[in-house]
Amino acid sequence: MPYSQASAATTSNPTSFPPLPLVAANVYISEGRRPGVLDEIVRAIAGTGAVVTPTATPWRVGEGGGSRPHVRPSIAPSVALLHAFPDAAYNRTGFTLVGMVGDSQASNSSSTRSRSSSACGLTAAIVAAAQAGLAHVDLAALRGHGGGDHPTLGIVDHIAVHPLGGAGSSLGDAVCVARAVAAALGAPGPASVPAFLYGAAAVDPAHSSLAALRRALGYFRPPLAPGGAGGGGGGDESGFPAPDFGPAPGCSSTAAVAARGRVAVGATPWVLNWNVPLGGCDEAAASAIARTISSRGGGALPGVEALALRHEEEEAGSGGSAFAWEVATNLRDPGASPPAAVEALIAAVAARLGGGKVVVGAGYSTGRDPEVLAEAARQALVVGG
Questions:
Q1: Domains and CATH numbers, the chain
Q2: For the whole model, what pTM was predicted?
Q3: Kindly report the CA angle at 92 between 197 and 385, in degrees rounded to 5?
Q4: H-type helices in 187-302, by residue range?
Q5: DSSP secondary structure code for residue 245 in this structure
Q6: Positive or negative torsion for Cα 68, 73, 79, 82
Q7: How many Cβ atoms are within 10 Å of 33's Cβ, its own excluded?
Q8: What is the pLDDT of residues 268-315, one digit of tens each?
Q9: pLDDT 10s digits, 43-73
Q10: Distance CA 64, CA 41 (A)
Q11: What is the per-residue DSSP string for 192-223?
Q12: Beta-bridge partners for 26
């Protein structure tokens, strides 16, 4: 679903403040159709003291009325909710939180303590978002007619933590946050979820990437929707790995997975989500294109993960749209594999496999550039806007 211009960030007149040590987290929750539920998630984030910016609630843009999410005042905020991308067709929303992981003005003697405190603030906001999703989303409904066309491991599908750079922020900071989040979500309790770590946060070296973990958990098994093995239950789960945190395999795990699904939590350098619509093809052709352009499938570009999904226009009932499918990519190294190069590769493969009948549309991102996020965080956390 293309990002609405109404919710785009405004970053004019950037400040000259020194770079902040920032870490970003993208939290993907399997709800994109009920604004009231999305508001509850935002309220939970605000309840931790995080700043909620106006662009973080795009489902309210253009409405003449309706309540706004409550934003709890914070005297010295260290975390901001900067962006949300609700996708009704996929019944999925990505929430982007950015937090400081230390005080750039702190002395050497206090920097470790300050960094730990700030990281705890980001961890608390991420966990609050996830727990609100767990409280307000029904996984059983996702498996039925309430589901979307995007595969998911559970109510909270995926939490990705990335360093944004600045004054000393590192992948190690992202690892600390990711592991703390996974431990909190898997802690014993009525809403405990089997949590699996990947990337730099992984305990199991086999889970070096999100795609590797998803394959191990049956995420890509058909049907690629919440009813499949990747949707928090169902299908043959033999051979699945044990979670790093949360209910161990057995009766308690079976009940937890049936009620809430699983969650993947990882730490990696920045990953760009870039989707390219396809027209004039069916699912088999779109899947073949996605497999061929992926790095694992022998594609010419490094760090490209790709999956064929239904494009929003067909689900929206527009009928006349030429774009019924799209290639959804995760670009793990956007510098080496920029969107323009990925689109060119998709066009070349589509022309070869589709006999000239496949139409390749303009690609779009479901998130923000890290530079834009860093500036927005400075505005929210330092300038106060």
A1: 5-268 (3.30.990.10), 272-365 (3.30.70.670)
A2: 0.85
A3: 90
A4: 210-216, 251-260, 283-293
A5: B
A6: positive
A7: 17
A8: 999 999 999 999 999 999 999 999 999 999 999 999 999 999 876 543
A9: 999 999 999 998 899 997 555 333 455 454 5
A10: 22
A11: ---EEEEETT-SSGGGSSHHHHHHHTTTTSSS
A12: 96, 160
